Amino acid sequence: MSGVWGAVDVGNTSIHIGLFDRADSRPLPAPTTTFSTASREPDFSPWAARLPREPITWNIVSVNRAGQAAFENWLTATRPHDHHHALDHAELPLAISVAAPEKVGMDRLAAAVGANAIRDPQRPAIIIDAGSAITVDVVSVAGAFLGGAIVPGMKMAARALAGQTDMLPEITVDVGEVPTAIGADTLAAMRSGLFYSAVGGVRELIERFTAQLNGPAPQVIFAGGDAAKLAPQMPVASVTIDHLVLGGVAIAARHAKAPR
Ligand SMILES: Nc1ncnc2c1ncn2[C@@H]1O[C@H](COP(=O)(O)OP(=O)(O)OP(=O)(O)O)[C@@H](O)[C@H]1O
Ligand SMILES: CC(C)(CO)[C@@H](O)C(=O)NCCC(=O)O
Ligand SMILES: [K+]
């Protein structure tokens, strides 16, 4: 058995992979190595050479079945001695207080596991994961996942604007800088709308969740590729955690009863 865990987060845009040291006993472990590739036609080859030779056990959370199959097929073909296991909601060290826990995206649940490891135990947490979709979710003071909201991510919204109109182009929302609010041409207007609607949506959800929780002020935790753009725009203090989902997967692997 090798000294590392593999954690895999299969999203709708990207597959994020991390290697974790099994001896990492921090509340939220951090990956020693990460690699990302597109979920559609992923290419793992640039990374394969960096993997240890010993067999690795991979724990997977997936919200994209084709991406998951691509990863598993690659593994079977290139690393036949490795093991892989797609985690199920029931395997997470997490109370899930919704009627249908099996329908909740495993990335949302793994992020909640990660959030529980770092939050103040006296306060609930609001988790914003800004990827293909932006999810805004809640864990209670007791640590239970309560649900939340799902919003199109900025890139997805940009695609929708271009795809369902005649005159709007597809733009990249790679806003290196914060856009001017009053956009003076089409591109500037789209950039403004895409950015500030995401900012405003997340802000409104934080506010409403906070009101509904009606208790100690929630801790706000950002994750995902667009976190760095959104977090500074919020009127509340927050922390941004890289690899929150992968860290949650590593915690789940650590907690698993059977040695994997
Ligand atoms: N390390 C990074 N630094 C800056 N931007 C990033 C980084 N990683 C991803 N992004 C950008 O942030 C956006 C969201 O990234 P993230 O990796 O969280 O989600 P995704 O992979 O796009 O979606 P999903 O996880 O749903 O597949 C993407 O549009 C991507 O271009
Ligand atoms: C919301 C996304 C797309 C975010 O990646 C994913 O978590 C998902 O497909 N979830 C399934 C539906 C749900 O979470 O209720
Ligand atoms: K879908």
Automatic annotation (TrEMBL):
<dbReference type="InterPro" id="IPR004619">
    <property type="entry name" value="Type_III_PanK"/>
</dbReference>
<feature type="binding site">
    <location>
        <position position="129"/>
    </location>
    <ligand>
        <name>K(+)</name>
    </ligand>
</feature>
<dbReference type="GO" id="GO:0004594">
    <property type="term" value="F:pantothenate kinase activity"/>
</dbReference>
<comment type="similarity">
    <text>Belongs to the type III pantothenate kinase family.</text>
</comment>
<keyword id="KW-0547">Nucleotide-binding</keyword>
<dbReference type="Pfam" id="PF03309">
    <property type="entry name" value="Pan_kinase"/>
</dbReference>
<keyword id="KW-0173">Coenzyme A biosynthesis</keyword>
<comment type="function">
    <text>Catalyzes the phosphorylation of pantothenate (Pan), the first step in CoA biosynthesis.</text>
</comment>
<keyword id="KW-0963">Cytoplasm</keyword>
<keyword id="KW-0067">ATP-binding</keyword>
<comment type="subunit">
    <text>Homodimer.</text>
</comment>
<feature type="binding site">
    <location>
        <begin position="9"/>
        <end position="16"/>
    </location>
    <ligand>
        <name>ATP</name>
    </ligand>
</feature>
<dbReference type="GO" id="GO:0046872">
    <property type="term" value="F:metal ion binding"/>
</dbReference>
<feature type="binding site">
    <location>
        <position position="132"/>
    </location>
    <ligand>
        <name>ATP</name>
    </ligand>
</feature>
<dbReference type="GO" id="GO:0005524">
    <property type="term" value="F:ATP binding"/>
</dbReference>
<keyword id="KW-0808">Transferase</keyword>
<keyword id="KW-0630">Potassium</keyword>
<feature type="binding site">
    <location>
        <position position="186"/>
    </location>
    <ligand>
        <name>substrate</name>
    </ligand>
</feature>
<feature type="binding site">
    <location>
        <begin position="105"/>
        <end position="108"/>
    </location>
    <ligand>
        <name>substrate</name>
    </ligand>
</feature>
<keyword id="KW-0479">Metal-binding</keyword>
<dbReference type="GO" id="GO:0005737">
    <property type="term" value="C:cytoplasm"/>
</dbReference>
<feature type="active site" description="Proton acceptor">
    <location>
        <position position="107"/>
    </location>
</feature>
<dbReference type="GO" id="GO:0015937">
    <property type="term" value="P:coenzyme A biosynthetic process"/>
</dbReference>
<protein>
    <recommendedName>
        <fullName>Type III pantothenate kinase</fullName>
        <ecNumber>2.7.1.33</ecNumber>
    </recommendedName>
</protein>
<dbReference type="InterPro" id="IPR043129">
    <property type="entry name" value="ATPase_NBD"/>
</dbReference>
<keyword id="KW-0418">Kinase</keyword>
<comment type="pathway">
    <text>Cofactor biosynthesis; coenzyme A biosynthesis; CoA from (R)-pantothenate: step 1/5.</text>
</comment>
